[in-house]
């Protein structure tokens, strides 16, 4: 780990005691900073809060008192999910206190180079694919970030022999200033998280932060099929450009021709040999191939990974064939685009869809044509968005639509409405927080209920 002395004996405020907040607070304390952690929740029984108190970190819980920000505060490290409308953050920015996420600190301290992956959809799958492919390089990969372990935790033991393969959200990237990955990967930019960023332009600028500090010694792997990625990211980047595409032959990157995946005109494998279904996963595979190719990973190893990799947990995850039904858990599909792609991953199969969740104020009109195109024979709806999704399904003329209480009650209905040869698909198109702690919990409950029918 590189030395960082600029915050020694200075006040650092960590806003939000989540996974990243805990790791960042502990690290900054070890670097000699005077650390305060603030969280709106009661932390009196929180184990992380207790362990931080034991090493001298000051804990302020139960609210966000504005007096925490004063002229003595040198830095605020915020939880990525806390919006910039938070009064403490607004006051910090007004007083020119730097407001960053833990990604910024990890980037400053890491001896290992970063491969950063961002995009509206496909980040987790692509990150995991790159992690597996990098095992065929001269560097030992460590997969972290928005997936898995906090970056400020992993960089403490990472060396120059490692490569940190980091999934990065727009929330994380907006809080960076000097972050400098050696390879950045930008998959796509859709109309997501506008409640947080306000506009598509702000959202795209946050994504583009991944390449702002890159130079000609670095590489930008980008989706040349996406006009937004090209306009907002690639055209402004100083890094070497390594494109990937389904629409054109990118001889300096990754592409598909006559059903074969290529990297710089070297054939890797036939698309039909891939372990993951769906066109969206083909794009993820191309991105991973391009990133691994920058590090000289052999086409043989890339092919082996693409054949054997079966997907990230909760992202179009194959569960099992139960009573002749093929079960897929796509609980991580928390938006319309992700669910749309899942619906078209099973050509020739009839689908029973389980959907619904947190109401973020949007309609589901964009899902109507996708429901019409895909062979959806029945839909089971739950959660806050139940009525909105019901309206979309009626307009899409789905033959059978049922409202149920939750995922647990949806599964037996799905078996009753399906027959051998069908696909039962949990792909909610919504976040989980109205009924479940996380999309992971929602997906695990789905799998547990499915297993009762084995």
Automatic annotation (TrEMBL):
This is UDP-N-acetylmuramoylalanine--D-glutamate ligase. GO terms for biological process: cell division; cell wall organization; peptidoglycan biosynthetic process; regulation of cell shape. PANTHER family: UDP-N-ACETYLMURAMOYLALANINE--D-GLUTAMATE LIGASE (PTHR43692:SF1). Residues 314-430 form the Mur ligase C-terminal domain. Cell wall formation. Catalyzes the addition of glutamate to the nucleotide precursor UDP-N-acetylmuramoyl-L-alanine (UMA). It comes from the Bacteria. GO terms for molecular function: ATP binding; UDP-N-acetylmuramoylalanine-D-glutamate ligase activity. Keywords: ATP-binding, Cell cycle, Cell division, Cell shape, Cell wall biogenesis/degradation, Cytoplasm, Ligase, Nucleotide-binding, Peptidoglycan synthesis. It is found in: Cytoplasm.
């Amino acid at each position: 780990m590189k030395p960082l002395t600029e915050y020694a004996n200075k006040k650092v405020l960590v806003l939000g005691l989540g996974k990243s907040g805990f790791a960042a607070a502990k690290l900054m304390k070890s670097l000699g900073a005077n650390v305060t952690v603030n969280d709106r929740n009661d932390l009196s029984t929180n184990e992380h809060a207790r362990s931080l108190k034991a090493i001298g970190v000051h804990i302020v819980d139960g609210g966000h008192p504005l007096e925490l920000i004063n002229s003595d505060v040198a830095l605020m490290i915020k939880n990525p999910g806390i919006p910039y409308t938070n009064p403490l953050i607004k006051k910090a920015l007004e007083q020119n206190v730097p407001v960053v996420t833990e990604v910024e600190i990890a980037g400053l301290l890491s001896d290992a180079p970063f491969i950063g992956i961002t995009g509206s959809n496909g980040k987790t799958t692509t990150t995991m694919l790159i992690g597996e492919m990098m095992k065929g390089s001269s560097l030992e990969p460590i997969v972290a970030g928005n997936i898995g372990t906090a970056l400020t935790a992993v960089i403490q033991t990472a060396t120059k022999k490692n490569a940190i393969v980091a999934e990065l959200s727009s929330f994380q990237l907006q809080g960076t200033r000097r972050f400098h990955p050696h390879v950045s990967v930008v998959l796509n930019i859709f109309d997501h998280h506008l409640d947080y960023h306000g506009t598509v332009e702000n959202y795209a600028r946050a994504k583009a932060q991944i390449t702002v500090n890159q130079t000609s010694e670095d590489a930008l792997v980008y989706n040349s099929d996406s006009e937004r990625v090209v306009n907002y990211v690639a055209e402004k980047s100083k890094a070497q450009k390594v494109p990937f595409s389904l629409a054109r032959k990118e001889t300096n990157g990754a592409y598909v021709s006559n059903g074969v995946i290529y990297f710089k005109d070297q054939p890797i494998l036939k698309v039909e040999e891939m372990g993951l279904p769906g066109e969206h996963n083909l794009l993820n595979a191309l991105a991973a191939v391009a990133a691994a190719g920058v590090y000289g990973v052999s086409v043989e190893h890339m092919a082996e990974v693409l054949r054997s990799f079966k997907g990230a947990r909760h992202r179009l995850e194959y569960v099992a064939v139960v009573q002749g039904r093929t079960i897929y858990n796509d609980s991580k599909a928390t938006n319309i685009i992700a669910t749309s792609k899942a619906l078209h991953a099973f050509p020739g199969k009839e689908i029973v869809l389980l959907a619904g969740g947190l109401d973020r104020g949007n309609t589901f009109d964009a899902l109507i044509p996708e429901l019409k195109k895909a062979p959806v024979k029945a839909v089971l709806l739950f959660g806050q968005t139940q009525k909105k999704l019901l309206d979309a399904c009626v307009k899409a003329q789905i033959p059978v639509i049922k409202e149920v209480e939750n995922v647990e009650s949806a599964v037996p209905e799905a078996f009753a409405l399906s027959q051998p040869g069908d696909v039962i698909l949990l792909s909610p198109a919504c976040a989980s927080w109205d009924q479940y702690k996380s999309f992971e919990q929602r997906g695990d409950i789905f799998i547990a209920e499915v297993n009762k029918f084995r």
